[in-house]
Amino acid sequence: SSLKIGLIPADGIGREVIPAARQAIEALGSSIPKPEFIDLDAGFEYFQKHGKALPEETLQKLKNECDCAMFGLSNLHSSPSTKVAGYSSPIVALRKAMDLYANIRPVVGVSASGKPSVDLVVVRENTECLHLTIIHKSNVLSITDGLFRESVRAVAKEWPDITIAEQLVDSAVYKLFREPNVFDVMVAPNLYGDILSDAAAALVGSLGVVPSINAGDDFVIGEPVHGSAPDIAGQHKANPVASIRSAAMMLRHLGYGDAASRIEKAVDTVLVEGHVLTPDLGGKATTEQVTQAILKLI
Ligand code: NAI
Ligand code: MG
Questions:
Q1: Is residue 229 within 8 Å of residue 242, measured between CB atoms?
Q2: Atom 42, ligand 1: residue with shortest CA distance
Q3: What is the pLDDT of residues 250-262, one digit of tens each?
């Protein structure tokens, strides 16, 4: 049987980096079931034409026809974005509709020695937000952040091998920049997780290399951590690595660990060698050139 993968590039550089992820999956050949890609609509441009950012058809096809999906990013073509009447983020709606409650964002630096300078995972609560889980410090907002803290501690009791430490969010950012190696897994409410993972991305060179999956009990969506990068959109400068790594994470989540490792090794080799890099990493290569270098190694 085939592996049915929904593709939702949405807007901006999503249309440049999601095809790169598709090619990386295709390059795996017979190490995964034959991929079958299903193109799906969503995003701000779709909203401008049809008045809806996430069409019902996309949601239904994801639920009924797809085994997994890749999402690019949606944007308002400007940053910082302004509120547009009637528009709301399709990925936020998707996370809720499909109960993808965990956003897992590994941030790993690569180095020639093989010992990464940074190696941590931000686990971001994914289906709630500021009103509910609360973005604040439990020393100040004791009820809401306090609840988050107590919930994590309650679950942690079932896993005695795991050592739990705590850090208030402001000093966590400080510590992240001074001693990133003290962190292994950071579990955070929605907004803190968003901010911490962008901050951690700076430590490994670029937002363009940091992947994520949106995971629930029944479905998984790969998604780069970055946004639509309006400053470089359409210039062939977008780094495809975050999306390609997201595809690998998605495959590992589905049980295709060897296939995922093949993609990840190819990416790491290209990054360590450093000959074919996009401008965010100091190189001169295009999105397509980096993708081709990775495909060759897969
Ligand atoms: P951004 O992540 O788009 O860009 C921040 C900086 O990182 C920019 O300098 C950009 O050029 C660079 N960058 C990002 N991805 C890159 C890549 N693949 N390769 C090379 N450089 C890359 O964040 P920003 O500017 O705050 O947001 C832009 C738009 O994206 C906004 O409209 C925002 O709403 C939207 N956005 C959408 C998301 C989603 O749909 N999941 C997530 C984050 C932002
Ligand atoms: Mg973000």
A1: no
A2: 227
A3: 999 999 999 999 9
Beta-carbon neighbours within 5 Å of ion ligand 2: 194
Collect the ranges in the chain with pLDDT lower than 70: 77-82, 128-130, 132-141
Read off the amino acid at residue 136. H
Rg (CA), the chain: 19
Domain spanning 3-108+210-297: CATH 3.90.1150.10: no
Ligand nearest to the CA of 227: 1
pTM metric for this prediction: 0.91
Q: Where are the domains of the chain?
A: 3-108+210-297, 118-203
